[in-house]
């Protein structure tokens, strides 16, 4: 009985590994945008948190300090979206496998 349980657990782990690979590919292809001040600044990042694009409306160029804050705000918004997508995609990949509390999967 113990041997069968271990084999089942190993099979589950292999299936989870395959699902994780697909999930990581999905996240790598993901791009999300965050914006600040009604679109004066838009920051686009990948599912791996790599910055892809920054769009700045000319109206935001007059005040350097404000522009810096707007860029940070837009990035933070995009970052939160990626984290939410990451949680959703990875929870699907690990469905059925018990994970310890607080366990965070690398992506």
TrEMBL record:
Localization per record: Cytoplasm, Nucleoid
The entry's keywords: Coiled coil, Cytoplasm, DNA-binding
Cellular component terms (Gene Ontology): bacterial nucleoid; cytosol
Main location: cytoplasm
Ranges in a coiled coil: 6-33
GO molecular function, one term: DNA binding
InterPro entries referenced in this protein's UniProt entry, alphabetically: YbaB-like_sf (IPR036894), YbaB/EbfC (IPR004401)
Annotated SUPFAM superfamilies: YbaB-like
NCBIfam families: DNA_YbaB_EbfC
Described function: Binds to DNA and alters its conformation. May be involved in regulation of gene expression, nucleoid organization and DNA protection.
Assembly and interaction partners: Homodimer.
UniProt family annotation: Belongs to the YbaB/EbfC family.
Protein name: Nucleoid-associated protein B0G85_0313
């Amino acid at each position: 009985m113990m041997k069968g349980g271990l084999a089942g657990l190993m099979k589950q782990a292999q299936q989870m590994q395959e699902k994780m690979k697909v999930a990581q590919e999905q996240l790598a292809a993901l791009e999300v945008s965050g914006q600040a001040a009604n679109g004066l600044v838009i920051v686009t990042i990948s599912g791996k948190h790599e910055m892809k694009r920054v769009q700045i409306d000319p109206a935001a160029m007059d005040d350097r300090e404000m522009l810096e804050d707007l860029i940070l705000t837009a990035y933070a918004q995009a970052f939160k979206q990626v984290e939410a997508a990451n949680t959703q995609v990875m929870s699907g990949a690990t469905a059925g496998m018990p994970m310890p509390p607080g366990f965070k999967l690398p992506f």
